[in-house]
Write a structure and sequence with these properties.
alpha+beta, 4-stranded mixed beta sheet, 3-stranded antiparallel beta sheet, 7 strands, about 30% helix
Amino acid sequence: MDLKNSKPKRPYITFLVCLVLAFIGWCIVTFYKDYRVTLDYKIQCYNLPAGTQSVTVSDSVISLTFNQKGINYLMAPFSNKEKILYISVSELIQQKRKVSVYTFSNKEMREFLSHHNFGSELVAVESPEVVTFYMQ
Protein backbone atom coordinates (compact mmCIF):
# COMPACT_ATOMS: atom_id res chain seq x y z
CA MET A 1 0.00 0.00 0.00
CA ASP A 2 1.51 3.28 -1.11
CA LEU A 3 0.44 6.15 1.16
CA LYS A 4 2.26 8.80 -0.86
CA ASN A 5 0.12 8.27 -3.93
CA SER A 6 -3.22 7.91 -2.15
CA LYS A 7 -5.29 11.11 -2.27
CA PRO A 8 -8.35 11.84 -0.18
CA LYS A 9 -11.40 11.30 -2.27
CA ARG A 10 -13.62 14.30 -2.69
CA PRO A 11 -12.33 16.71 -0.02
CA TYR A 12 -14.99 19.23 -1.00
CA ILE A 13 -17.71 16.89 0.34
CA THR A 14 -16.04 16.87 3.75
CA PHE A 15 -15.80 20.66 3.64
CA LEU A 16 -19.48 21.03 2.73
CA VAL A 17 -20.57 18.68 5.52
CA CYS A 18 -18.55 20.70 8.06
CA LEU A 19 -19.98 23.94 6.66
CA VAL A 20 -23.57 22.65 6.98
CA LEU A 21 -22.95 21.46 10.55
CA ALA A 22 -21.47 24.85 11.49
CA PHE A 23 -24.49 26.65 9.99
CA ILE A 24 -26.93 24.41 11.90
CA GLY A 25 -25.03 25.10 15.14
CA TRP A 26 -25.11 28.85 14.48
CA CYS A 27 -28.88 28.73 13.82
CA ILE A 28 -29.55 26.86 17.06
CA VAL A 29 -27.53 29.35 19.13
CA THR A 30 -29.08 32.38 17.37
CA PHE A 31 -32.71 31.23 17.51
CA TYR A 32 -32.68 30.27 21.20
CA LYS A 33 -30.90 33.37 22.46
CA ASP A 34 -32.93 36.16 24.14
CA TYR A 35 -32.76 39.61 22.58
CA ARG A 36 -34.05 42.98 23.74
CA VAL A 37 -35.74 44.93 20.94
CA THR A 38 -37.54 48.30 20.82
CA LEU A 39 -40.48 48.65 18.43
CA ASP A 40 -42.64 51.66 17.58
CA TYR A 41 -46.43 51.32 17.73
CA LYS A 42 -49.05 53.75 16.46
CA ILE A 43 -51.71 54.42 19.13
CA GLN A 44 -55.37 53.82 18.25
CA CYS A 45 -58.04 54.52 20.88
CA TYR A 46 -61.32 52.64 21.21
CA ASN A 47 -64.00 52.03 23.86
CA LEU A 48 -64.44 55.73 24.66
CA PRO A 49 -66.16 56.74 27.92
CA ALA A 50 -69.81 57.83 27.80
CA GLY A 51 -70.20 61.43 26.65
CA THR A 52 -66.88 61.50 24.81
CA GLN A 53 -66.91 61.93 21.03
CA SER A 54 -63.19 61.80 20.34
CA VAL A 55 -59.82 61.36 22.01
CA THR A 56 -56.60 63.08 21.03
CA VAL A 57 -53.28 61.62 22.20
CA SER A 58 -50.23 63.80 22.89
CA ASP A 59 -47.99 61.41 20.95
CA SER A 60 -49.32 59.22 18.17
CA VAL A 61 -46.38 56.78 18.43
CA ILE A 62 -45.17 54.89 21.49
CA SER A 63 -41.89 52.95 21.70
CA LEU A 64 -42.03 49.65 23.59
CA THR A 65 -39.10 47.41 24.57
CA PHE A 66 -39.55 43.62 24.59
CA ASN A 67 -37.56 40.51 25.45
CA GLN A 68 -37.80 38.23 22.42
CA LYS A 69 -36.43 34.90 21.31
CA GLY A 70 -34.13 34.90 18.30
CA ILE A 71 -36.65 33.93 15.63
CA ASN A 72 -39.02 36.79 16.56
CA TYR A 73 -36.14 39.25 16.81
CA LEU A 74 -34.70 38.31 13.45
CA MET A 75 -38.08 38.55 11.69
CA ALA A 76 -39.01 42.00 13.09
CA PRO A 77 -36.88 44.08 10.65
CA PHE A 78 -38.43 42.27 7.68
CA SER A 79 -41.99 42.97 8.78
CA ASN A 80 -43.36 45.84 6.70
CA LYS A 81 -46.76 45.99 8.31
CA GLU A 82 -47.50 48.95 10.53
CA LYS A 83 -47.67 48.09 14.20
CA ILE A 84 -50.81 49.44 15.87
CA LEU A 85 -51.49 49.47 19.62
CA TYR A 86 -55.21 49.50 20.43
CA ILE A 87 -55.89 51.13 23.78
CA SER A 88 -59.25 50.88 25.54
CA VAL A 89 -59.62 54.38 26.94
CA SER A 90 -62.38 53.36 29.39
CA GLU A 91 -60.16 50.68 30.94
CA LEU A 92 -57.16 52.99 31.02
CA ILE A 93 -58.90 55.82 32.88
CA GLN A 94 -61.15 53.80 35.19
CA GLN A 95 -58.84 54.33 38.21
CA LYS A 96 -58.66 58.11 37.71
CA ARG A 97 -61.21 60.78 38.57
CA LYS A 98 -63.36 62.19 35.76
CA VAL A 99 -61.65 65.06 33.97
CA SER A 100 -61.09 65.97 30.33
CA VAL A 101 -57.29 65.46 30.34
CA TYR A 102 -55.53 62.31 31.57
CA THR A 103 -51.75 61.99 31.91
CA PHE A 104 -49.93 58.67 32.30
CA SER A 105 -46.26 58.12 33.11
CA ASN A 106 -44.07 55.39 31.58
CA LYS A 107 -44.61 53.22 34.64
CA GLU A 108 -48.41 53.56 34.52
CA MET A 109 -48.47 52.78 30.79
CA ARG A 110 -46.23 49.75 31.31
CA GLU A 111 -48.52 48.40 34.03
CA PHE A 112 -51.58 48.89 31.82
CA LEU A 113 -49.93 47.43 28.70
CA SER A 114 -48.55 44.41 30.58
CA HIS A 115 -52.05 42.88 30.23
CA HIS A 116 -51.88 43.08 26.42
CA ASN A 117 -50.76 40.03 24.49
CA PHE A 118 -47.79 41.13 22.38
CA GLY A 119 -46.34 37.63 22.01
CA SER A 120 -43.25 38.74 23.93
CA GLU A 121 -42.49 40.00 27.42
CA LEU A 122 -42.93 43.78 27.70
CA VAL A 123 -39.90 45.26 29.48
CA ALA A 124 -40.39 49.01 29.29
CA VAL A 125 -42.11 51.96 27.64
CA GLU A 126 -39.18 53.88 26.17
CA SER A 127 -40.84 56.99 24.83
CA PRO A 128 -42.61 59.27 25.32
CA GLU A 129 -41.98 59.91 29.00
CA VAL A 130 -45.61 60.94 29.50
CA VAL A 131 -48.69 60.12 27.40
CA THR A 132 -51.62 62.52 27.65
CA PHE A 133 -55.17 61.77 26.50
CA TYR A 134 -57.43 64.74 25.72
CA MET A 135 -61.17 63.95 25.84
CA GLN A 136 -63.58 65.98 23.69
